[in-house]
Amino acid sequence: MIWVFLVHLVLLLPFSSQGANPGLVGRITQKGIDYAHQLGIEVLKSQIPKIQIPDMSGRYDIGGIGDVKYEVSRMHILEFQLPQSAVTFFPGTGIKLSISNAYIKINGDWRVKVLFISDSGSFDISVSGLSISAVIGVKKDDTGRPAVGSAGCSSNIGDLSIKFHGGASWLYNLFTGALEGPIRNSLNEKLCPEVNNAINGLEPHLQTIPITAQIDKIAEIEYSLVNPPEITDKYTDLDFKGEFYNIGQHTEPPFSPLPIALSDQTDSMLYVGISEFFANSAGFVYTCAGALQINITDNMIPKESPFRLNTDSFGVLVPEIEKRYPNMSMVMHLSASKQPVLTSQPDNLTVVVTGAIKTLVILPNASLAPLFILGLDASVSAKLLVTGVSIRGELSLNKFSLSLDQSDVGPFDVSKLQTLVNLALKLVVLPQINEKLAKGFPLPTIDKIKFVSPSIKINQGFILIATDIQYTP
């Protein structure tokens, strides 16, 4: 029903001044829950006729006639109209659903006993002016998952009329007014308990929400809530941990997330703030796992390139190489010596990489002989793209510098190797990294939801995604 869709939409997307700083922040706005409300109403209209209404029985004293015992059973809804309804945030608590002037027509069977007369037949009940106001309380549980519960409910039935059919219905229609009160009260007493049961019934489903997403055989992302939801009259903000971990080994990095300050933006349905910490925790995990390394061989260099990864090409620049190892193939082992660091500044994303290039010659017996080790400091620009419900990236080289950290072929001017290293970085290393980044990293959302017309803004310390959403059943 509408409860399920609204709660999932609010809870599974992510400012809070309390507790730990998040790595990932999300906001669902009034525009967002208005969209969910539209979808939820359609679901509600389709589900209302399927509701099973419990049987009712009672007795009522009618002056001049006596004690009337009645039973009503097999009730089902024939018609449901919902002209007025609204969903709003309930500051500090959760979500409020208000329904007013609803109309329901119910059909069922009746059985009565008056004095010595027992009779039965069918009936129609028309309920108009029906109003319900219910609040769903939203909080964080001990596991970092969202938790919900009923935080208040009230209902009222405006007008109720009964029309009996069959049996001596002409007789019972004379005193339907006397039965309307008890039946109205009985229905009214059951509305809020049923609503509360529906709300509280969401909790078991929320307990099954995954709070980690595996990326590959090395890393996973944790999306547990680190603070209680902050609910205002315009939006709800949720703080997610938003941190990469090595699978099965949750080691915290030597740095912490900084606060993400979202302004009071509400034009889009959903906002997602991604901190520098989110990306840098990934760099920490992959560096610690030894995954940020690559061997570059000659067959990885495009065939049309005039420079080859062999001693003939390098001998032109460093003659001692060709002198010692004539006409031999080479291999370059590139690895990160420090964790890559992403910096977010207005309209600019930069990643600084510090590494080493260990260059070796492949001897005729297939063993390796060291040639030299270069220190590498590189700056790359990052571009981001949101597709589906994932964020994807692409890196391009800005600049780099080389230093000679060790040489087994004597001193030489490393600037002579700029062209070769530039070629290796642009044609081999970055394409392999971009291939992995193109697979994307999942953002927290719910099944069958996709982003519509997302935009990305690079801010100081974080990236902001603003988007509308679309739900496809």
How would you characterize this protein structure?
The relative contact order is 0.12. The radius of gyration is 34 Å and the shape is rod-shaped. Helix content is 23%, strand content 46%. The longest helix has 25 residues, at 176-200. Mean pLDDT is 86; it is low at 1-18. The strands form four sheets. Strands 2, 3, 4, 5, 6, 7 and 8 form a seven-stranded antiparallel sheet that branches. Strands 15, 16, 17, 18, 19, 20 and 21 form a seven-stranded antiparallel sheet that branches. Strands 11-12-1-14-23-22 form a six-stranded antiparallel sheet. By secondary structure, it is α+β, with helices and mostly antiparallel strands.
How is this fold's topology laid out?
Elements: H1 2-11, E1 24-29, H2 30-47, E2 56-62, E3 66-81, E4 84-90, E5 94-114, E6 117-140, E7 146-156, E8 159-165, H3 169-172, H4 176-200, H5 203-206, E9 212-214, E10 219-222, E11 230-231, E12 235-240, E13 243-246, E14 270-275, H6 276-288, E15 293-297, H7 311-317, H8 319-324, E16 330-336, E17 341-345, E18 348-362, E19 368-387, E20 390-407, H9 418-437, E21 441-442, E22 449-459, E23 462-471
Antiparallel strand pairs: 1-12, 1-14, 2-3, 3-5, 4-5, 5-6, 6-7, 6-8, 9-10, 10-13, 11-12, 14-23, 15-16, 16-18, 17-18, 18-19, 19-20, 20-21, 22-23
| Largest sheet data | 7 strands, antiparallel
Shape: rod-shaped
> How big is the Rg?
34 Å
Estimated helix fraction: 10-25%
- Residues in β-strands, percent: over 45%
Straight-line N-to-C gap = 13 Å
